[in-house]
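Dear H.,

Thanks for agreeing to be a second pair of eyes. The structure we're designing against is below in token form, covering all 83 positions.
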């Protein structure tokens, strides 16, 4: 979740993924999902920023190496005799 503070009206906004949130002052600071917009972005203070999620692998290191080796295999085309 993103949270910002508008320096003009001193209102704190906390982002909501389902709907946009706005402060309503002349600067019109707005959080829409993971995007921040305002008339003057220099009047916005970022309190918390979105954190990127790390991929959690359920495979062990040996299994991941095996999968990588399988991806490197080339496809062999089989020729069949047509009668």
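And this is the sequence the design step returned. I haven't edited it by hand at all.
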């Amino acid at each position: 979740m993103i949270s910002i503070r508008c320096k003009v009206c001193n209102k704190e906004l906390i982002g909501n993924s389902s709907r946009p949130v706005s402060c309503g002052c002349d600067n019109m600071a707005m959080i829409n999902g993971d995007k921040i917009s305002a008339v003057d972005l220099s009047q916005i203070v970022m309190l918390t920023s979105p954190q990127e999620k790390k991929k959690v692998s359920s495979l062990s290191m040996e299994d991941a190496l095996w999968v990588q080796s399988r991806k490197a295999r080339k496809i062999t085309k089989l020729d069949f005799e047509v009668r």
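Two observations from my side: The radius of gyration is 25 Å. The first strand starts at residue 3 and ends at 6.

Warmly,
E.
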